[in-house]
Design goal:
- This is Tautomerase family protein.
- One of its GO terms (molecular function) is isomerase activity.
- Keywords: Isomerase.
- It holds the Pfam family Tautomerase.
- The protein is α+β, with helices and mostly antiparallel strands and about 70 residues long.
- It has one domain (about 5-65): Macrophage Migration Inhibitory Factor (2-Layer Sandwich).
- Helices cover about 40% and strands about 25% of the residues.
- It contains two helices and four strands; from the N terminus they run E-H-E-E-E-H.
- The strands form two sheets. It has a two-stranded parallel sheet with strand order 1-2. It has a two-stranded antiparallel sheet with strand order 3-4.
- It starts with a strand and ends with a helix.
Length: about 70
């Protein structure tokens, strides 16, 4: 049973968190089920929301990267 853990910047999905998570989980579930030739019910998806101030890329906060600073 595939278990997919998706970490996403909370502020990126702030406008519609439930809708965006639903779209992403549907697409990911479908892709894995198709590729592995398993029922979609066997694919589990979990989201972890991380604040843009707690996520870094190359030593720079994602908040700063997103603002262009």
């Amino acid at each position: 049973m595939p278990f997919v853990n998706i970490r996403i910047v909370r502020e990126v999905i702030a406008a519609d968190p439930e809708g965006i998570k639903s779209k992403v989980s549907t697409a990911v579930t479908s892709a894995i089920a198709d590729a592995a030739e398993i029922p979609e019910d066997n694919v589990w998806v979990v989201f972890e929301e991380v604040s843009e101030t707690d996520w870094f890329a190359g030593g720079t906060r994602v908040k700063e990267l997103r603002s262009g600073s």
